[in-house]
Amino acid sequence: MIILCVVLSIILAFPFLLSNNFVIVAVSAFILNGFFWCINPLADGFINRKLSGDSSRYGTIRAMGTLSYVTALVLFGVTGFPHENDNSSILLCMMIFLPLLALGASFLKEDKRIEKKEEKGKLFSFSWFPKRFYIFMGIVALTRVGQSVVEKLLSSYMTENLGLGDSFVLFIALGAVFEFFCMILFGKLNKKGILSSTIILIISAVGLTVRLLLYLIPGLPAFILAQTLHGLTFGALHLCATSYTAANVDKNHYDLGMTLYWSLATNLPEMLGALVGGFIIDSFGYPTLFLSYSFFPLLAVILSLVLKKTLEGDNR
Fold first, then answer.
1. CA distance linking residue 75 with residue 81, whole number of Å
2. The pTM is what?
């Protein structure tokens, strides 16, 4: 299924990037994103099933993916290829990954799942997940509203206010470097029982609050410091969310659990946050955006502390 989603994403990129027809581009973008954003939850579910929820090894594997991401960002930033104004070069770059996909597919082997009789034929049931899983993901969603500033709106701030548009890729790579180390570090700490997923969630939310407030300080030094916190605001958060899912969701439902995390606790709040954020920028400016959105991760910290016993309960 992962391979199918990758292949379909690449195929749909052709009409999306090459067509001049608005309808074709819009429809292609809609379907392409549907398949593309299925890749992350499917991959995370596959990895966690193979590792039996081992957060340390998952963190290391996920960090290797981040390292590859950093390498590609730096390479693109230095060489200028693919060029942002040349869609053909973007497609060519995507095609390079097809042989690597074929090679990787030869090593993938999915374990056969054993479904319970009462679950056969069901697409979804609320009973598949404990109540604390929904609470945990709700808190994660609050942090992702704040993270929408980073994921969706920071590029415009860099261009309009800091004049760093040409260096955008390199600053994203800086954040990804710290993400790499945080994935490994928090994975090991979580595995050893030193930090629970709930504590890591709290640390990440505090980091995001500080990061958004740092953007209020004019100048490049504060911006660079804020970028280094990406390791906490995404790396640590993603590690604790996948670890929590592995620990609280039946193996047969890893994929669905990760889909709920990516779709309802990540992409949906980021989309809504970016939508409202655009209006805030136009009406009140970036300082109001950073200050107001820092409230969401701060609220997540408070709720995590208040509900800590529930989130770390032993009964499914």
1. 8
2. 0.84
Comparing CA positions, the residue from 199, 185, 247, 261 lying closest to residue 53 is 247
Can you tell me the distance from the alpha carbon of 125 to that of 117, in angstroms, rounded to the nearest whole number?
A: 14
Q: Is the dihedral of CA 127, 131, 132, 133 positive or negative?
A: positive
pLDDT in tens, 197-241: 999 999 999 999 999 999 999 889 999 999 999 999 999 999 999
**Can you spell out the DSSP letters for 219-288?**
SHHHHHHHHHTHIIIIIIHHHHHHHHHHHHS-GGGHHHHHHHHHIIIIIHHHHHHHHHHHHHHHHH-HHH
For residue range 149-195, list pLDDT tens digits in order: 999 999 889 888 888 766 777 888 889 999 999 999 999 999 999 99
Q: How far apart (Å, rounded) are the C-alpha atoms in residues 274 and 151?
A: 9
The predicted-structure confidence for 79-92, as pLDDT tens digits, reads as follows: 777 776 778 888 88
Q: CA 104 to CA 65: how far, in whole Å?
A: 13
71 vs 77: CA distance, rounded Å: 10
CA-based Rg of the chain, rounded to a whole angstrom?
A: 20
**Could you tell me the pLDDT band of residue 316, with boundaries at 50, 70 and 90?**
very low
CA 6, 12, 15 angle in degrees (round to 5)?
A: 155
The CA distances from residue 39 to 4, 9, 70, 116, in Å, are 9, 10, 19, 26
